[in-house]
Give the backbone structure.
Amino acid sequence: MFTSTLRSCCFSLTATLLWLFISGAITITHAQARAYVAESCNNTVDVIDTRTNTVIVKIPVGAFPHFLAVTPDATRVYVSNRQSNSVSVIDTATNTVISTIPIHFPSGIAISPDSSRVYVTTSDSSIAVIDTSTNTVIDNIPDSFAPYQLALTRDGTRLYVTHGVISFNNTVSVIDVASHQKIATIPVRAPAGIVLTPDNTRAYVAGREGGVFVIDTATNTVINFVAANISLDVALTPNGARGYLTNVFAFNVQVFDTTSNTIADDIPFDGFFAFLAVTSDGRRVYVTENLNTSPPVGAVAVIETATNTIVDEITGLQCVNGIAIAPPQFPRSKDDCKEGGYQRFGPPEFRNQGQCLKYVKEHAVPNGP
């Protein structure tokens, strides 16, 4: 029965995709969605084509890359190299490192909405501020001991910073970006990964000693708790309805409902987990996992959110840690579409320059024609 259903489903899906391709609703160009994975044992960042789920290039970076983030314009990737005390800057067009910024034991990374600033937690009880036009540290924001991960509100005004993975601080700091002042300290037991809802009203914090803490950003207080296993990282679907949580020792990913704040599903794996990222359309979750070997054999599992099942696995990696997915890019003017420029965008992806120009015209792109 399952085989029959699967064949029927695949036939329907194939027919739909074929119709979309013929009609021009789906096109294939050189523009491809990318995921970036820190492979710590090999000191590389692996670039994954998320349409084929294959590694297309390995980019050498500093020693023990850990966390990484993609700028909103998808032109740069910033990578924290913990053992070489540096942040590598990758040009996504050439997949090469174009700058190396000295920062003492960097960890979590967040990037401003306009791509002008990068915020990096350091072991110096501060957050380094990088000017992306010069790729230099222009300031340091004082914070509590051993800041770990951080999340920036969508308007770029506040940073939420966790402490507790390598210390007993057990707090989340709230920092006003404009004044560089800490405006709140929220008690949270062993906080690790953190993510903000799309409307910035809630922050979800993975607890290294178990569960997910829910913070009301209006009052900066913990208002709820999701009972879960020992957790390291957390991510939300783009609509904020579901959360995904990596469990350190339980060999599974847990799915929770953000309305009821209860676990909705458990997805079993073969290895223990590091970090995860959700695609911009919310259809896939990419999870880095490692087997208990020496050196750790790594992989990236691909979860389909509609069914909460693993649909693919990218293998042959080692010591995988942080992961980030490039946001979708859109043309803003006629010039963006010219001379093969239409190939840079996706999703949506354009089959030719004409489709790109049509998109610009129909969407009344700011600063466009």
User: Anything to note?
Assistant: Confidence is low (pLDDT under 50) at residues 1-32, 365-369. Residues 206 and 212 are 5 Å apart (CA to CA).
